[in-house]
């Protein structure tokens, strides 16, 4: 039965509890009321009761019941980011309260792309914490799809990422670090020291290629799409940069990645950046935040990361 959005809103506002929300989120996560009951400390009949209650409130089935468990419906998928965000906000509030009770003057929740959890951005964060020890920072590394969910639900104070295609009302993106592509090879590789390596030369080497959708893969695909001889690809599939960089250090395979992602690996001394003709200028890493609703901790952190103080 289709219900007007205002009716659904009023029903949720007056009758929805966090037990309802937790039951939906855990069941969606594990596809089982048994596992949801186990993790929530409730029994299965209670979980089933809470799920039925939410479905009555919204006038739609959130799950399909089948022999192997529960499968989320389109209606359930539409509501899940909201419910997940509400639980995360509750957790964030608990952490912020604990920070105040522990003597901190404020806490902020930061989520970041893996590329933003590397040396460049972390230097800025380390300098911020040294300058402002009164704040407590909770940081989580997440993929792009998860960061978008955080942005939609407002579950984080600051998100460190590349510029998104669009932003919710009131949010802004401020660039903090420029970025570009770099080709990695082990120290002592036969191409080390050569100048102006062309794509044709690089295509004669073996390459490590991350899964589709990752910046590194997009650069690789754009480079070699029109090269007559497509390079040989090592038959390993992983999005773990730790694994990929270790493989580069132990083999003759090459890897193209954003510089800010590669900086720690280059600092190790086991990996070098080749001198190539082609260099892709990438969208900068930056911060997404909501200035009008920012707490003192969030505003102070955002202004710091935007400044040039820590970059020298």
From TrEMBL:
Keywords: DNA-binding, Transcription, Transcription regulation. InterPro entries: HTH-type_LysR_regulators (IPR050950), LysR_HTH_N (IPR000847), LysR_subst-bd (IPR005119), WH-like_DNA-bd_sf (IPR036388), WH_DNA-bd_sf (IPR036390). GO terms for cellular component: cytosol. Residues 16-73 form the HTH lysR-type domain. GO terms for molecular function: DNA binding; DNA-binding transcription factor activity. It holds the Pfam family LysR_substrate. Belongs to the LysR transcriptional regulatory family. This is LysR family transcriptional regulator. It comes from Xenophilus arseniciresistens.
């Amino acid at each position: 039965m289709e219900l007007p959005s205002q009716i659904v809103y009023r029903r949720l506002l007056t009758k929805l509890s966090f037990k309802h929300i937790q039951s939906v989120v855990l069941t969606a996560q594990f596809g089982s009321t048994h596992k949801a009951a186990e993790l929530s400390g409730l029994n299965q009949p209670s979980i089933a009761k809470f799920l039925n209650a939410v479905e009555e409130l919204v006038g739609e089935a959130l799950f399909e019941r089948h022999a192997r468990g529960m499968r989320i419906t389109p209606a359930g998928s539409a509501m899940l980011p909201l419910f997940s965000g509400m639980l995360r906000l509750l957790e964030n509030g608990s952490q912020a309260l604990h920070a105040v009770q522990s003597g901190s003057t404020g806490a902020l929740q930061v989520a970041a792309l893996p590329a933003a959890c590397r040396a460049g951005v972390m230097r800025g964060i380390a300098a911020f914490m040294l300058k402002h020890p009164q704040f407590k920072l909770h940081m989580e590394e997440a993929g792009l799809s998860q960061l978008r969910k955080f942005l939609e639900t407002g579950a984080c104070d600051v998100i460190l990422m590349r510029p998104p295609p669009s932003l919710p009302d009131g949010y802004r993106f401020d660039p903090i670090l420029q970025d570009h592509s770099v080709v990695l090879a082990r120290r002592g590789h036969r191409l080390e020291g050569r100048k102006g390596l062309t794509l044709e030369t690089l295509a004669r080497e073996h390459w490590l290629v991350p899964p589709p959708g990752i910046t590194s893969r997009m650069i690789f695909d754009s480079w070699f799409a029109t090269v007559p001889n497509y390079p040989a690809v090592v038959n390993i599939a992983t999005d773990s940069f730790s694994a990929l960089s270790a493989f580069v250090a132990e083999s003759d395979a090459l890897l193209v990645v954003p510089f800010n992602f590669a900086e720690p690996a280059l600092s190790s001394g086991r990996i070098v950046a080749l001198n190539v003709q082609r260099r892709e200028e990438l969208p900068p890493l930056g911060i997404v935040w909501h200035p009008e609703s920012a707490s003192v901790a969030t505003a102070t952190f955002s202004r710091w990361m935007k400044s040039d103080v820590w970059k020298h």
